[in-house]
């Protein structure tokens, strides 16, 4: 399928995809760890050396400090769910997003297929993308991405709101497969995935309450079409 959107340097985009036939693409900690490490390593103009980087003697934590030059995109936020992922990025250089996602999808699919003795595509076609064209929309999508794991404990949170905010807050503070922990101040090596300026931006939500507030906000006219665009079968 041909993507209807084109990417431009200096713009923000919400990227997402899920497993073919809605299958799980992350089954255990090693799967999540591998994809998270690839988010960091594939964001480089240099080819990724799989055998070198993923030597059995190296931990995932060691990979988040591997020197990189000429990153392709700036990653604003991300979240990995059992059968899909979300990544919010800023395009730094021409074709940066396309190159980054090609490297990421290929490297993870090869790992997944070899590990499970399967062949064929892992993802549901070409990754999907939405252009983030306003600051309110940027804040909304960042919040939406970080709140996504609540679906694992409350399947109807998007439709009915977050019923138990205390339980949701506790769950997100324990969920390691998103950038939420980096935004709320936890120091960890995975934080190197995110461009520092986003974590330091005082306009960016940095607490559970602020993320919920941005998601619930309906004051800005710019958000009129956000919820219909995001609440689709992909997520």
Task: Give the arrangement of secondary structure elements.
Elements: E1 12-18, H1 29-41, H2 50-53, H3 60-63, E2 73-81, E3 84-91, H4 96-116, E4 128-132, H5 135-147, H6 157-160, H7 165-172, H8 180-183, H9 196-200, H10 208-216, H11 226-230
Antiparallel strand pairs: 1-3, 1-4, 2-3
Helix pairs in contact: 1-4, 5-10
Radius of gyration: 17 Å
What shape does the CA trace take? globular
Beta strands, count: 4
Mean pLDDT: 88
Give, in order, the helices and strands. Answer: EHHHEEHEHHHHHHH
Low-confidence parts lasting 5 or more residues at pLDDT below 50?
A: 218-235
Number of helices: 11
Helix and strand content put the structural class at: alpha+beta
Determine the strand fraction and express it as a percent band. Answer: 5-15%
N-C termini distance: 19 Å
Largest sheet: 4 strands, antiparallel
Roughly what percent helix?
25-40%
Spatially, the strands of the biggest sheet line up as 2-3-1-4
């Amino acid at each position: 399928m041909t993507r209807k959107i084109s990417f431009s340097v200096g713009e923000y985009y919400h990227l997402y995809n899920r497993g073919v036939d809605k299958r799980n693409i992350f089954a255990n900690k090693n799967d999540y760890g591998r994809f998270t490490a690839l988010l960091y390593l594939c964001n480089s103009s240099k080819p990724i050396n799989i055998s070198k980087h993923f030597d059995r003697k190296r931990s995932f934590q060691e990979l988040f400090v591997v020197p990189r030059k000429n990153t392709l995109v700036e990653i604003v936020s991300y979240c990995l769910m059992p059968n899909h992922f979300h990544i919010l990025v800023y395009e730094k250089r021409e074709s940066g997003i396309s190159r980054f996602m090609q490297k990421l999808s290929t490297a993870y699919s090869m790992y997944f297929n070899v590990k499970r003795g399967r062949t064929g595509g892992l993802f549901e076609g070409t990754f999907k993308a939405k252009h983030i064209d306003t600051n309110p929309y940027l804040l909304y999508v960042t919040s939406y991405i970080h709140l996504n794991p609540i679906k694992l404990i409350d399947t109807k949170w998007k439709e009915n709101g977050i019923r138990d905010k205390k339980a949701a807050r506790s769950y997100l503070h324990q969920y390691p497969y998103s950038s939420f922990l980096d935004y709320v101040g936890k120091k960890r090596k995975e934080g190197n995935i995110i461009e520092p300026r986003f974590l330091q931006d005082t306009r960016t939500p940095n607490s559970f309450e602020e993320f919920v507030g941005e998601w619930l906000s309906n004051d800005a006219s710019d958000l009129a079409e956000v919820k219909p665009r995001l609440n689709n079968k992909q997520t």
